[in-house]
């Protein structure tokens, strides 16, 4: 799909060698990006790839460290959002929520209100606001405060505002995150209309189906660097995912012993049927049997963390049912999950896991003590026994158990966190990115530990972005895409190629088989 | 409840309190319901009202200005010194005082924006500086005897039986009208509400955050300077301890008037009503004659508490409603 008008020789927007660093983090490193007249250009990459930074550097929210930006051949360097808007670049920022305290009309016209005799013409503003929202099928009271409307409606209003200001370039940073299918369809219609008028659109999304539905071209970023630019029609999904993940797909898969086949006939320890939560994860079925490792694979933002949060009761499912040991249960919170023998090592151990000032010992016994209730303190002698046992078992490198945990290296903190849950002797342990941010040595040890734990009959549910790692220890892999469980691979089917194929697969709910 | 009614509810409640309060006073004291009382109410509270309007803008933008009382005090001293010791014409002194007060506010706004400092701290420092500067000029109460002062104090629109709209009252009413226009019919007004709603979103929507912040503190300083002029007309003197604690009285008026302390929600007119309610309580106590004037403070304290609870209740109800409102 190309624009109806022949593209002029100078691109609409030409970004060359753009660089931006934040206190040591190189968010953008010499990135090129070209937007042509009348095209919808997807800007893709995993979380943290630098997409939002590219947009904000372009529109003057941040000042660039290096590189050039040319709009229709003319060098530009907006010093603020206002200036970018005057250059006819309209933007919906990822985190923009507009202003809940202003009316819908005021939000649409903030900074560009229609004036008459030096004063804001509120009547004209109302009329034009209604007209702007018309194509989106929104006939709402434009004088009502924005905060009174649903998140989806607010999102559409933000888009309508940006579209109305984008005579040349429209930038949408993950605008569809809170929209339903119908609302997305409306948005795409508007985008196609703008494209036919020669406007260039930069579209950031995590939803690959949407990319293939509307985008003409794709630029992929990874770790602040440009990976490449392709025409959508010439880039198979498999290659796109590989570009985003940056993996050599022919990675050797040396898999561990998968465990006896009779595992499949064991009754599940925990079973979830039609379990889900609106705007979080689509309903899914998931069985976890004692002694097996089930991995959740997918791109960041695909619903992996959301799935484990539901399983552990940190978020409450609004549909479906959960059974443990064949009995239906209600998970009202993490306390219920802990009582059932579940344990959870979160992804962000700094924020949700370790208590930096407490000693290694205190961190290790935390979950066990919480389960017993704080009124029945574990005797000091017993605490020391437990701590010493796990320090030895997991080879936690610390001079002694009384050292504040914040003085330990990341890998050792992660192991202490693992010890905390192991001390409760969980039947199901959930690990979210267990090897994130730790050194190679500790990495291998944690994988060995996972294998050993399962041999002892514990079930593990692991979220990981490391596909080789998943392949190495998982009996089953559930693949997620766009907040949906799209495939389940088991036993011999588990391989990096198959996982990537499932992440990239076109039709939802397609079982990936030969 | 329609959405418009809901939005104006705090304002409606405040106005109802004023009307009911006035009727109760009138029922108790036969002379109360007179144009004279109304005229005095406006005159006596003019400087407070003018200051409170500036405070309303600052609070709407998500800030606070603790320096206003000190700026009033400083202005009165500056005027007295310029006119009495320096022999300046009062009009020239007025101009200098307004520029100084506005510039002082702008400087505080600049510090708040450039160094990303909390307005509470910056304007607290501003309060000490302004008071201190007043004392540096003179520690005495200096009477102002310029003939123009007498003439200005004689200007009045007479109406009804014994009713009199003095120059300060006229100034206050003019400021209120101008403030309503500024808040609702200019881009600056919209930017203020935007800033108070969410600073980051406002910035991403193209609101000139720095310029608006400097402007709103400059405006508050300017109005405090104007209030200082009115105060010196009213008292006929300049004194560096004048208007102590007025910053708190104005914040009270703003909150009673239905503006949220966290910014983004509220109306200028509400502040005007809030000022009148405070004045009404004071007038009641004067009429009664037996009550200690400290009862004014107690009554205002109770009222403030009730209004904050009311606002909180309303907010909870709004938040709980959620969802899409009925189509209009
Ligand atoms: N304001 C900021 N301050 C410090 N670091 C930032 C800031 N914004 C982004 N980063 C960092 O820059 C990198 C790129 O982030 P971002 O552009 O938001 O990625 P994306 O939008 O692709 O998910 C990340 O490592 C992020 O932590
Ligand atoms: Mg982003």
UniProtKB/TrEMBL annotation, chain A:
Q: Where in the cell is it found?
A: Cell membrane
Q: Which GO terms describe its cellular component?
A: plasma membrane
Annotated GO molecular function terms are:
ATP binding; ATP hydrolysis activity
Q: What is its main location?
A: membrane
State a single Pfam family of this protein: ABC_tran
- List the keywords (alphabetical): ATP-binding, Cell membrane, Membrane, Nucleotide-binding, Plasmid, Repeat, Sugar transport, Translocase, Transport
Provide the ABC transporter domain boundaries.
13-248, 253-507
Q: How does it sit in the membrane?
A: Peripheral membrane protein
Q: What is this protein called?
A: Sugar ABC transporter ATP-binding protein
Source species, please? Answer: Azospirillum oryzae
């Amino acid at each position: 799909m190309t624009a109806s008008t022949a593209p002029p020789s100078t691109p609409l927007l030409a970004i060359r060698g753009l660089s931006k660093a934040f206190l040591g983090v190189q968010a953008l490193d010499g990135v090129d990006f070209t937007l042509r007249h009348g095209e919808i250009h997807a800007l893709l990459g995993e979380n943290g790839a630098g997409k939002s930074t590219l947009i904000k550097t372009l529109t003057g929210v941040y000042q660039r460290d290096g590189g050039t930006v040319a709009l229709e051949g003319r060098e530009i360097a907006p010093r603020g959002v206002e200036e970018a808007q005057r250059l006819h670049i309209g933007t919906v920022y990822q985190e923009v929520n507009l202003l809940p305290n202003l009316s819908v009309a005021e939000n649409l016209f903030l900074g560009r209100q229609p004036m008459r005799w030096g004063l804001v013409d509120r009547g004209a503003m109302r009329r034009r606001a209604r007209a702007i929202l018309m194509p989106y099928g929104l006939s709402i009271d434009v004088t009502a405060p924005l905060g009174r409307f649903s998140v989806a409606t607010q999102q559409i209003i933000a888009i309508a505002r940006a579209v109305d200001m984008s005579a040349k370039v429209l930038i949408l940073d993950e605008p569809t995150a809170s929209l339903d299918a119908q609302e997305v369809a409306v948005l795409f219609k508007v985008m196609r209309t703008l494209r036919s008028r020669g406007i260039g659109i930069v579209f950031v999304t995590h939803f690959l189906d949407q990319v293939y539905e509307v985008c003409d071209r794709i630029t992929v970023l990874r770790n602040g660097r440009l990976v490449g630019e392709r025409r959508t029609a010439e880039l198979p999904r498999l290659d796109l995912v590989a570009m985003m993940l940056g993996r050599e797909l022919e990675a050797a898969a040396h898999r561990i012993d998968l465990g006896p086949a009779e595992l499949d006939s064991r009754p599940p320890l925990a079973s979830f049927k039609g379990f889900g939560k609106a705007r979080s994860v689509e309903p899914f079925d998931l069985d976890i049997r004692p002694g097996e490792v089930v991995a959740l694979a997918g791109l960041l933002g695909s619903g992996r963390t959301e799935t484990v949060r539901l399983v552990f009761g940190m978020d409450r499912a609004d549909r479906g049912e959960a059974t443990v040991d064949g009995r239906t249960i209600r998970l009202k919170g993490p306390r219920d999950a802990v009582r059932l023998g579940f344990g959870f090592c979160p992804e962000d151990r700094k924020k949700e896991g370790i208590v930096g000032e407490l000693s290694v010992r205190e961190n290790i016994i935390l979950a066990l003590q919480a389960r017993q209730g704080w009124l029945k303190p574990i005797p000091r002698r017993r605490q020391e026994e437990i701590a010493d046992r796990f320090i030895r078992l997991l080879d936690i490198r610390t001079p002694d158990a009384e050292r504040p945990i914040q003085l330990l290296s990341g890998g050792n903190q992660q192991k202490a966190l693992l010890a905390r849950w192991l001390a409760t002797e969980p039947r199901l342990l959930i690990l979210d990115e267990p090897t994130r941010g730790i050194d190679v040595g500790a990495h291998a040890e944690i994988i060995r530990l996972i294998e050993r734990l399962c041999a002892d009959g514990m079930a593990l549910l692991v979220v990981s972005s490391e596909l080789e790692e998943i392949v190495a220890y998982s009996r089953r892999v559930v693949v997620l895409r766009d907040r949906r469980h799209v495939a389940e691979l088991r036993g011999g089917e588990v391989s990096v190629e198959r996982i990537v194929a499932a992440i990239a697969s076109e039709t939802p709910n397609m079982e990936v088989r030969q | 409840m329609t959405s418009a009614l809901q939005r104006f509810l705090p304002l409606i409640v405040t106005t109802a309190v004023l009307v009911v309060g006035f009727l109760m006073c009138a029922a108790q004291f036969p002379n109360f319901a007179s144009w004279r009382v109304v005229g005095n109410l406006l005159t006596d509270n003019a400087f407070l009202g003018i200051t409170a309007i500036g405070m309303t803008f600052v609070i709407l933008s998500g800030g606070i200005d603790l320096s206003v009382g000190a700026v009033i005090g400083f202005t009165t001293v500056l005027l007295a010194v310029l006119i009495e010791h320096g022999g300046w014409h009062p009009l020239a002194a007025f101009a200098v005082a307004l520029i100084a007060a506005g510039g002082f506010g702008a400087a505080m706004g600049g510090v708040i924006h450039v160094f990303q400092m909390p307005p509470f701290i910056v304007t607290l420092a501003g309060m000490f500086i302004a008071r201190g500067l007043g004392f540096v000029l003179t520690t005495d109460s200096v009477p102002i005897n310029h003939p123009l002062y007498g003439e200005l104090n004689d200007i009045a629109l007479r109406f009804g039986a014994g009713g009199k709209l003095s120059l300060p009252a006229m100034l206050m009413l003019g400021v209120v009208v101008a403030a309503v226009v500024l808040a609702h019919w200019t881009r600056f007004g919209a930017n203020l509400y935007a800033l108070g709603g969410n600073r980051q979103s406002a910035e991403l929507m193209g609101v000139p955050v720095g310029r608006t912040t400097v402007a709103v503190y400059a405006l508050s300083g300017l109005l405090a300077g104007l209030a200082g002029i009115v105060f010196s007309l009213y008292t006929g003197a300049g004194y560096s301890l004048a208007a102590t604690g007025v910053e708190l009285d104005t914040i009270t008026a703003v909150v009673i008037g239905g503006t949220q302390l966290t910014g983004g929600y509220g109306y200028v007119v509400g502040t005007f009503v809030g000022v009148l309610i405070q004045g009404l309580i004071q007038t009641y106590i004067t009429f009664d004659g037996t009550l200690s004037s400290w009862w004014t403070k107690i009554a205002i304290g109770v009222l403030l508490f009730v209004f904050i609870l009311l606002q909180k209740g309303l907010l909870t109800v709004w938040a709980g409603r959620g969802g899409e409102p009925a189509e209009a």
